[in-house]
């Protein structure tokens, strides 16, 4: 049961009646109040139950972070009068539902559609519902309120903005497969394919001197592109990637880049896998080929969240080396911080490089870099600038030490991480380093 605003007017009318009545005002007030109470009981009894409205909800089973989606609730009026209805459809705050509540008047025996929009801000699983419905009685004094256990489970996937950045690289990768190789992304294996005229951007070692001696122009060797090579994404889901950059966590940037590059590698014909870890191994997808592999990785990792604990690099690498021995291109998505924090990673890099190629990928924070170069006008601003400059120095030192060990470091701006990793992948493919 719920009381409606018109009930206040009814009690005020009873008070006015008691004030102007020639009889005992107290007796009149009590009588009028009892009458209003009886009318409330009748009103509640005549209000339809929530289940009689045949509520239905329509929402997509899969949503994308940051992208608006429509949500629709349909209600039926089973009475022969216009029915006032209020609903509250329970939705997590991270869904940014608008509007959160609805009020509608439904024509006799008619249907009404209540539309709302949601824009998820958090990746993972979310529940919409239950549905709380208030129906008014014919007098408008009160009505029924009940909750319908109508719950829809939805999945919120990463926005995957990196796919747009990698699309151009995908076209170049398709050229590798078809044999129409561009000069910058030509096959890099040792398997000879054909002879062609030497171009200015070709590597010097490609020149075929015997063929050149018989030709007025330099001749170069062309090689077949190798497929079925191994690519493994290592995603750090610890406190190192819990911090936010450009409104989302570093882990979101990592997932965006990892899925985009996995899709690119699968199109080229390589086998792609993934390993997510924090203080323990959270998920492992063995490298496999085919167009279904990137969605399989996304399905397994879409509800991965960064935990507030230190990353266990030794466990992650030991698990990888135990489960996967074939030479691979490893991409470690983490955050570059003080060298003491990264010490386990730095100790493990030589072991990894003995068998694999390693790229350490991270996203930079432009706000911190701007603060590190700002001119302070107050003592607080000076402390903030010094802290930001120290953080940037830590990152640069860590990156330099990782490069000194023989690994590649990609430290990209927000939105550019996927494209930078994709470019590095295609460069490695073109040079035949795998």
Fill in the keyword field for this structure.
six-stranded mixed β-sheet, 434 residues, alpha/beta, Immunoglobulin-like, Rossmann fold, 11 helices
Write up what this structure looks like.
By secondary structure, this protein is α/β, with parallel strands linked by helices. It has two domains: 1-157, Immunoglobulins (Immunoglobulin-like, Sandwich), CATH 2.60.40.10; 226-431, Rossmann fold. The protein has eleven helices and 21 strands. The chain has helices at residues 6-20, 25-46, 162-178, 209-213, 250-268, 293-301, 313-323, 343-353, 366-372, 379-404, 417-431; strands at residues 2-3, 56-59, 62-64, 69-76, 83-89, 101-106, 111-118, 124-128, 131-136, 142-148, 152-157, 192-197, 219-223, 230-236, 244-245, 248-249, 271-277, 281-288, 328-333, 357-363, 408-412. A six-stranded mixed sheet has the order 18-17-14-19-20-21, with helices on both faces. Strands 1-10-9-5-6 form a five-stranded antiparallel sheet, covered by helices on one side. The radius of gyration is 33 Å and the shape is elongated. Residues 178-189 have low confidence and may be disordered.
Quick overview of this protein structure:
The protein is α/β, with parallel strands linked by helices and 434 residues long.
């Amino acid at each position: 049961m719920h009381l409606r605003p018109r009930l206040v007017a009814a009690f005020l009318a009873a008070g006015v009646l008691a004030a102007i009545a020639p009889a005992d005002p107290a007796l009149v007030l009590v009588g009028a109040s009892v009458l209003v109470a009886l009318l409330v009981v009748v009103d509640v009894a005549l209000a339809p139950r929530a289940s009689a409205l045949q509520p239905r909800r329509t929402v997509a089973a899969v949503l994308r972070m940051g992208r608006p989606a429509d949500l629709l609730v349909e209600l039926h009026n089973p009475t022969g009068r216009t029915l006032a209805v209020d609903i509250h459809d329970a939705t997590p705050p991270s869904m940014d539902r608008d509007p959160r509540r609805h009020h509608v008047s439904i024509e006799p025996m008619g249907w009404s559609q209540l539309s709302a929009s949601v824009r998820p801000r958090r990746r993972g699983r979310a529940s919409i519902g239950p549905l709380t419905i208030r129906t008014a009685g014919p007098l408008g004094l009160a009505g029924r309120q009940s909750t319908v256990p109508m719950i829809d489970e939805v999945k919120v996937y990463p926005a995957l903005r990196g796919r747009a950045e990698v699309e151009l690289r995908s076209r170049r990768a398709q050229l590798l497969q078809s044999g129409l190789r561009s000069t910058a992304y030509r096959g890099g294996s040792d398997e000879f394919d054909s002879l062609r005229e030497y171009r200015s951007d070709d590597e010097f070692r490609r020149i075929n001197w015997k063929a050149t001696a018989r030709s007025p122009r330099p001749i170069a060797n062309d090689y077949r592109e190798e497929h079925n090579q191994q690519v493994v994404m290592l995603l750090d889901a610890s406190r190192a990637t819990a911090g936010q950059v450009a409104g989302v966590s570093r882990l979101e940037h990592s997932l965006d880049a990892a899925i985009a590059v996995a899709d690119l590698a699968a199109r080229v014909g390589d086998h792609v896998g993934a390993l997510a870890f924090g203080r323990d191994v959270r998920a492992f997808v063995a490298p496999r080929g085919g167009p279904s592999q990137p969605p399989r990785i996304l399905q397994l990792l879409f509800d991965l969240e960064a935990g507030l604990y230190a990353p266990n690099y030794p466990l992650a690498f030991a698990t990888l080396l135990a489960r996967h021995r074939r030479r691979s291109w490893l991409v470690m998505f983490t955050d570059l911080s003080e060298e003491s924090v990264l010490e386990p990673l730095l100790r493990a890099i030589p072991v990894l490089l003995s068998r694999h190629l390693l790229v350490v990928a991270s996203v930079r924070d432009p706000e911190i870099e701007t603060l590190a170069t700002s001119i302070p006008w107050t003592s607080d601003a000076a402390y903030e600038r010094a802290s930001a400059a120290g953080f940037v120095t830590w990152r640069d030192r860590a990156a330099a030490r990782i490069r000194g060990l023989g690994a590649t470091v990609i430290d990209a701006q927000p939105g550019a991480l996927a494209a930078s990793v994709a470019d590095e992948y295609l460069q490695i493919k073109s040079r035949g380093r795998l």
